Amino acid sequence: MPYSRALLGYALGFVGVVIFGATLPVTRLAVEWLDPWFVTAARAMFAGLLAAAILLVLRRRFPARHLGTLLMIAVFVVFGFPLTMALAMQLVPAAHGGVVLGILPLATAASATLIAGERPSPAFWMWSAIGAAIVVVFALRDSGLTFEIGDLLLLAATVCAAIGYTVSARLARIMPGWEVISWVVVLSLPVTIVATWWLWPAHTAAVPIDAWVALGYLAAFSQFLGFFAWNVGLAIGGISRVGQVQLLQTFVTLIIAALLLGEHIDLATILFAVAVVAVVAMGGRARVGMRNETGTA
């Protein structure tokens, strides 16, 4: 692969990681003033309108035969993940959420065993178990050995994202990845438009501009454009190479949480983040095969 092409792939992948890494801190900023249910609906609605405009300009044909799959993705990526994450950001710091969601790459790979026909090696499952244990210890360390509601919401967000990303990736094998997310948010418009109107804040003048800017970021970047950069980066530079850039996402979240929200990042949080990223890296190196029709690799 030419060096310039590989570099472009890494650059686009990094842009995607920065966009996604900022999602938790920006969501926490938004839900300080806006209802999380409204934030979930509005971010998807504005993303859907943007996607609809692009699809119309490019005259893309609606993939009717994939309607069921697109709706399934919407359930998890448009509604499940953003809502549980937004609710969690009312209860726990963004940095805390960044560490818990750091296990997402392993969760996504695990969900692929049920959905995409992949068969991870025993080593992968070992690293997944270690990663899950680290996240559980981190979640319990300040809560008297009981899960807080915020942690349960983050775990639910992880499951939703893992399933949504797996189904999206499977569909992206047969159609462009940017079209997948575009049609997903467009198909969600009948629900998101009504929900946004119904949940619109009664006193918009009381909401500071920072919260509206945060909502705009979530709609344009987190819900839509981030997928463009990430998917194109993977396509240009290769999934195995550029995919490793995702290991930086937890640290991006910690940095932005500190800079944007003034959150204190203690040494324990940093160490847990390093541990999670290291485990994800080792899990990513473990062999993952594909099942054939007889169930063998």
Automatic annotation (TrEMBL):
Cellular component aspect of the GO annotation: membrane
Transmembrane parts of this sequence: 7-31, 37-58, 70-89, 95-116, 123-140, 152-168, 180-200, 212-230, 242-261, 267-284
Domain named EamA: residues: 8-137, 149-281
Annotated keywords: Membrane, Transmembrane, Transmembrane helix
Entries under SUPFAM superfamilies matching the protein: Multidrug resistance efflux transporter EmrE (SSF103481)
Main location: membrane
Family annotation (InterPro entries): AA-Vitamin_Transporters, EamA_dom, EmrE-like
The name this protein goes by in its record: DMT family transporter
Topology in the lipid bilayer: Multi-pass membrane protein
Organism per entry: Microbaculum marinisediminis
Pfam families: EamA
Location(s) in or outside the cell: Membrane
PANTHER family linked to this entry: EAMA DOMAIN-CONTAINING PROTEIN, INNER MEMBRANE TRANSPORTER
Organism domain of life: Bacteria
Family, per entry: Belongs to the EamA transporter family.
